[in-house]
What does this fold into?
Amino acid sequence: MGKNKTNEGLFGAAKKFSDAFFDGLSKNASNRMIQKARKAGLPKDAIDVMNNIQKEKDYLDSLLKKYEN
It folds into this structure.
C-alpha cells in the first residue's frame, strides 16, 4: 500500500510541474502576442480588451486552483 501512495505522490507532483510549465508557456505566448499587436499598431481599445481577457483568465485560473480539491 505504501508503494501505491508513493506512486500517486510522484504522479501528482509530475502533473503539477507539467501544468505549471505549460501554463507558463501559454502566458508567455499570450504576452508576446499582445506585445506584437501593440507594435503592429492595433488600436489601444483592442489592446485593452486583450489585456482584460488575460486578467480574467488569470483570475479564473486562480479560482479553479483554489477549489481544485
